[in-house]
Specification:
14 strands; eight-stranded mixed β-sheet; 12 helices; six-stranded parallel β-sheet; 39% helix
């Protein structure tokens, strides 16, 4: 006997692995459960977790992967466990399949499964440029591999949807016409920590510690700021290849490296902060970090990369060019005028709630894939 109609989602990673795509899927599936659907996720087993698990109404299957590159690029092991998972999926009455990114092999498994079982497949584009490893030689081969994977999956997809207009412009550059936008979003009905009182002006960066994120300029700018002001503090939330280097280079009582945090812990530090510094030097889709900051009523200092300025404008945030000086100037402006941060953060909160809440976005996705009218 088949279960109630539901939606199948393929993703390279899911919680407890942390990232923007994982947060996107978590927000969407929460809304599906609220609406009475039974979402099923197929992801990689990157931490020796259970092959099958139900968490908060979401069924999660984890396919085995090879150890090589497992933290950045899951390569499926097509063994007995893998085959049993695909066979077990046949018990469900799937109305649609959603896959995430063109270059993760989990998307290709989902697209092939949809074609075999005559189920429409929709692809969500989360980026607005080629993925870069900050190495021209490696990037050359990686970009060609990405183009090959795009060609391979393209004809199996019923519709491409970016998480921002910037993503769709990127798709057009690689000769794909998007069907629409499924914005990244946050859940406004969730329980979040109350804003905590503090004496200093607290800045926070949240994300991977890689060069493309512009974290080094943030740290350098703050190091100059703390020489002039004694009422400032900086939280650095996240891990990555540059963690050890940054940790050793920036020894200060006013700079606190938090390492990798789960979502609730991150919200706790947002509640202690006043300003998000998120100034990537490379195009991004629509960062969850900025939406979460809007939810928590933080002022944001950002660069105009990818879809960021589809959320942030001069009325609800501060846009900089990403240089050390521009970041310093933005921070000093906030420190010298305490009303600026409050006014901008209140406007961002309202704007995000109106356009980027999961209650709004989930309804659009279901309508676009023909599940709800």
């Amino acid at each position: 006997m088949k279960k109630n109609e539901t939606i199948l989602i393929f993703t390279g990673y899911f919680f407890p692995h942390l990232g923007g795509i994982e947060a996107y899927i978590n927000g969407f599936t929460k809304q599906l459960v609220k609406k009475g659907y039974n979402p099923v996720i197929v992801t990689s087993n990157h931490q020796n977790l259970k092959d099958k698990e139900m968490i908060d109404g979401v069924t999660i299957y984890r396919i085995p992967i090879f150890n090589i590159f497992k933290e950045r690029y899951p390569i499926p092991k097509k063994n007995r466990v893998y085959k049993n998972i695909l066979k077990e999926l046949e018990q469900y009455n799937f109305k649609a399949i959603i896959v995430n990114t063109r270059f993760h092999l989990t998307s290709h498994i989902g697209a092939a499964y949809g074609k075999k079982h005559n189920i429409p497949v929709y692809l969500i584009e989360h980026g607005s440029n080629y993925v870069t490893l900050d190495n021209k030689f490696i990037d050359f081969f990686a970009n060609n591999y990405e183009r090959f994977l795009t060609w391979k999956i393209k004809n199996k997809i019923s519709g491409f949807y970016g998480v921002s207009e910037a993503c769709n412009k990127w798709l057009k550059r690689i000769k794909i016409n998007a069907s629409g936008v499924w914005y990244n979003a946050v859940e406004y009905g969730q329980k979040v920590p109350k804003r905590e009182k503090h004496t200093k002006i607290n800045f926070i960066y949240a994300g991977r510690l890689i060069k493309q994120k512009g974290v080094l300029n943030v740290l350098n700018a703050f190091s100059e700021l703390e020489k002039k002001y004694n009422n400032v503090h900086l939280f650095i939330a996240g891990n990555g290849p540059e963690y050890d280097s940054y940790f050793e280079s920036f020894k200060s009582k006013n700079i606190e490296f938090l390492g990798k945090l789960d979502f609730q812990s991150l919200l706790k530090y947002y509640s202690l902060s006043d300003v998000l510094l998120y100034t990537p030097l490379w195009p991004e889709g629509l960062p969850s970090t900025i939406l979460e900051s809007g939810l928590m009523k933080l002022c944001v200092v950002v660069t105009n990369q990818g879809g960021i300025c589809e959320i942030v404008n001069d009325e609800n945030g501060i846009i900089v060019d990403g240089s050390e000086k521009s970041i310093y100037d933005a921070m000093e402006l906030i420190v010298s005028n305490n009303k600026i941060a409050k006014n901008l953060s209140n406007k961002l909160y309202k704007d995000v709630k109106e356009k980027f809440s999961w209650e709004v976005v989930a309804d659009k996705i279901l309508k676009d894939i023909g599940v709800e009218k």
